[in-house]
């Protein structure tokens, strides 16, 4: 069963906010480059940055080039392993089915995300893949970190895109 983290001490909350702000800056860069603004970072147990990435579907012309997939690839390459159980993944938006599957396969130690995704979120919003029969990993999850800022960034980007269409 997914372990949703409900209580945090202020030091941990500050750390989670620090890394989510970092991911938000990556998401802003993605948005500035015509991508849906989603950013992701992976840190190790010493709270050191391992990898950073953003959505690149349009730039790479690759349907799998989501921020989460990109950051998992980079972290695995840097650490020379696909076993990322000692890592924390921060992402500004609740992962989709593809990304949730990759997160489970990588055995991420903790997933921290910002805004729920009412269309494709598969951590808790539309579906709960970590608690389903397809999951081979007990994923720890902290959702809603800097939720307002993450949601606002996405809403602003989509509004601007609609206004320019």
Q: What's the alpha carbon Rg, rounded to whole Å? A: 15 Å
| Topology, number of strands | 6
Oligomer: single chain
Which runs of at least 5 residues are low in confidence (pLDDT < 50)? none
What strand order characterises the main sheet?
Answer: 1-6-5-4-2-3
Strand proportion, as a percent range, falls in: 15-25%
**pLDDT averaged over residues:** 94
- Tell me the distance between the termini: 43 Å
Count of helical regions: 5
Shape: globular
Largest sheet: 6 strands, mixed
- Approximately how much helix is present in the residues? 40-55%
Class by SSE composition: alpha/beta
Strand and helix order: EHEEHHEHEEH
What does this structure look like?
This protein is of the alpha/beta class and 165 residues long. It is built from 5 helices and 6 strands; from the N terminus they run E-H-E-E-H-H-E-H-E-E-H. It has helices at residues 10-32, 57-60, 67-79, 97-106, 147-163, and strands spanning 3-4, 39-43, 49-54, 88-93, 110-115, 140-143. A 6-stranded mixed beta sheet has the order 1-6-5-4-2-3. Strand 2 and strand 3 (49-54) form a beta hairpin. Helix 1 (10-32) packs parallel to helix 5.
Tell me the layout of helices and strands:
Layout: E1 3-4, H1 10-32, E2 39-43, E3 49-54, H2 57-60, H3 67-79, E4 88-93, H4 97-106, E5 110-115, E6 140-143, H5 147-163
Parallel strand pairs: 1-6, 4-5, 5-6
Antiparallel strand pairs: 2-3, 2-4
Helix pairs in contact: 1-5
């Amino acid at each position: 069963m997914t372990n949703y983290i409900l209580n945090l001490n202020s030091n941990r909350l500050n750390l989670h906010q620090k890394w989510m702000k970092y991911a938000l800056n990556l998401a802003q860069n993605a948005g500035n480059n015509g991508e849906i603004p989603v950013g992701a970072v992976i840190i190790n147990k010493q709270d050191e940055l391992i990898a950073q990435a953003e959505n690149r579907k349009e730039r790479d012309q690759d349907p799998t080039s989501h921020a989460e997939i990109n950051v998992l690839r980079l972290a695995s390459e840097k650490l020379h392993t696909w076993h990322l159980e000692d890592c924390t993944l921060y992402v500004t938006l609740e992962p989709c089915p593809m990304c949730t599957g990759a997160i489970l396969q990588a055995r991420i130690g903790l997933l921290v995300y910002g805004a729920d995704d009412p269309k494709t979120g598969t951590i808790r919003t539309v579906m709960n893949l970590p608690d389903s029969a397809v999951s081979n990993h007990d994923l720890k999850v902290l959702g809603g970190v800097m939720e307002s800022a993450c949601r606002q960034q996405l809403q602003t980007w989509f509004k601007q895109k609609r206004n320019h269409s």
